[in-house]
Design brief:
The chain is α/β, with parallel strands linked by helices. The chain has helices spanning 8-15, 27-40, 59-67, 77-85, 102-111, 122-130, 171-183, 204-223, 249-264, 279-283, 315-319, 409-413; strands spanning 22-26, 48-52, 71-74, 93-96, 114-117, 136-140, 147-151, 157-160, 188-192, 226-231, 273-276, 287-298, 302-306, 325-327, 337-342, 351-358, 366-369, 390-394, 400-404.
Length: 420
């Protein structure tokens, strides 16, 4: 059974200060998860987690993660600017983008970020944009074909299709790209790949590591490039459903270590650093969306209407993603009522749950929608003129801090131009 990291009493006190809906984050859980990740890869002296800023772009969260030794993985100009304002600089920043405007490469270079190129043609584009190639550079690999493994966190067989993905170099482009980059002055190289999303398998990272480690050995031997780091990116998922078993990051880290010792060490590459980008793993379980019941609708189905909507959490509407729901104060009550839990957008897919069995829900009940700490607030939007919610941090000492105020109508109108 999933349990909220916050109590009903804490929420009732909090909603008197911050109106619902809002996203709530658990500082203690964030720090503990970051430390477990770091411990799992402690065998690798150069290990670093580059938190995917896109998952939760909030300064308070980023500063907590930086205190825990994490870097920032950025993919846009404003994410780079946010990372800089949160104190990240130099090799603490990984810049992985695609279809990249020149101004983004310029800022990444000015910040000293490690640039991770997405395409062969970007090599000369980068050189022309910043007047050369950085001495440290990385390239994203796309092996093509299909990738299958275990289960996803949505409960389905993992079957991602790298060959249909817009990201990364082909194998031949990668070898040619490393040679070209070396020719242009690069001295230290990195390798990056992302083959599957949101997996619930302790085998995903070790499998990916084996693919990249063998490729790195071939690249170094055939091109003479010094490969200094390998970035396993993201893909380690979380159990969104209460009956799913989560990944064991210690087992995952040990599996990667075994591949490292089997493949890289005998090739004389035992000094390669391992990087990760586990935004979902770090933040999703340590965040929730708090919303209040406003209405009931009794037609062909039983509907519970809440004050949040897909503009606050779009994953269920966009992907059909499951997010567990707790009716606060009724954690032990039988789930003997079937509801669709809906928001107020003029879209029929604005539903947080369909045919969900819950305890009997009453007007004014507080609902906690679990696992929204990553790709929750960050994917919000203003359709129907809905305003983005506040974000609140539940500190380790139990106190709460507002870390982003809710939008106001003035914010919504601020960029509009009204003709006189």
């Amino acid at each position: 059974m999933k349990r909220p990291f916050v109590t009903r009493e804490q929420l009732e006190k909090l909603v008197r200060q911050v109106p619902t809906p809002f996203h709530l984050y658990d500082e203690r859980g964030i720090r503990e998860t970051a430390r477990r990740l770091k411990a799992a890869f402690a065998w690798n002296p150069g290990f670093k987690e580059y938190f995917a800023v896109k998952a939760t772009p909030n300064p308070a969260i980023l500063k907590i993660l930086r205190e825990e030794g994490c870097g920032a993985d950025c993919s846009s100009l404003t994410e780079l600017m946010l990372a800089r304002r949160c104190g990240f600089s130099g090799s603490e920043i990984m810049f992985s983008s695609n279809d990249t405007p020149a101004e983004e490469f310029v800022l990444a270079h000015e910040l000293g970020a490690v640039i991770n190129l997405d395409d062969f043609t970007h090599i000369d584009f980068l050189r022309d944009t910043i007047g050369g190639i950085p001495e440290t550079i990385s390239c994203r690999f796309n092996p093509g074909g299909l990738f299958t493994l275990g289960a996803s966190a949505e409960g389905f067989q993992v079957m991602d299709n790298p060959g249909d993905s817009k990201y990364g170099f082909t194998r031949d482009q990668l070898f040619a790209g490393f040679r070209r980059l070396k020719e242009l002055g690069a001295k230290r190289f990195g390798l990056h790949a992302f083959l599957a999303s949101n997996t619930l398998s302790n085998d995903y990272y070790p499998t990916l590591a084996g693919i990249l480690f063998r490729l790195a050995v071939e690249l170094e031997r055939e091109t003479g490039c010094d490969i200094c780091f390998i970035n396993l990116s993201g893909g380690v998922g979380i159990p969104y459903r209460p009956d799913q078993r989560g990944n064991d990051i210690a087992v995952i880290g040990d599996g990667v270590r075994r591949r490292f010792e089997e493949i890289l060490v005998p090739a004389g590459m035992g000094d390669v650093a391992i990087f990760t980008e586990l935004g979902r793993f770090l933040l999703a379980p340590n965040g929730c969306l708090v919303t209040k019941v406003l209405h009931f609708k009794h037609t062909y189905k039983e509907y519970v209407g809440v004050d949040a909507c897909a503009a606050n959490l779009m994953r269920p509407a966009m992907y059909g993603a499951y997010h567990h729901i707790t009716v606060m104060g009724k954690e032990e009550a039988p789930c003997d009522h079937k509801y669709d839990v809906t928001g107020g957008l003029c879209e029929n897919n604005d539903k947080f749950a369909i045919d969900r069995m819950l305890p009997e829900v009453e007007l004014g009940d507080l609902l906690v929608i679990h696992d929204t700490g990553a790709h929750g607030f960050s994917m919000g939007y203003n359709y129907n003129g809905r305003l983005r919610s506040a974000e609140v941090l539940l500190r380790s000492d139990g106190s709460a801090k507002l870390i982003r105020r809710a939008e106001t109508p003035e914010d919504y109108f601020a960029t509009m131009i009204f003709e006189d």
